[in-house]
Amino acid sequence: MLNDSPVDATNVVDALRSDDDVSIISGEVTHGTGPAGVARNVVGFVVVIGGGVAESVSFTLDVTADSGGPWQYVYAGGGRAAVGVRVLQRVVT
What we know:
- It is built from no helices and 7 strands.
- By secondary structure, it is an all-beta fold.
């Protein structure tokens, strides 16, 4: 996640959600600050992908901060997402 603002972001909260067959075990990551011009990996989300998910899953990352926002980022792709999501297990029915 890149803070492309000229000011530091404070009290940054990243919240992950999905309307697909996904159980979000750990869906919120907080950062004290997001320095201006600095990119950070968002790590810490844990999900269980249900048996109703075929080959792709969609996530929305909602980001809030005291100094701006909110912002939304949408990811749609394979079962192992590229937004710092660790797949705890894939449930097969």
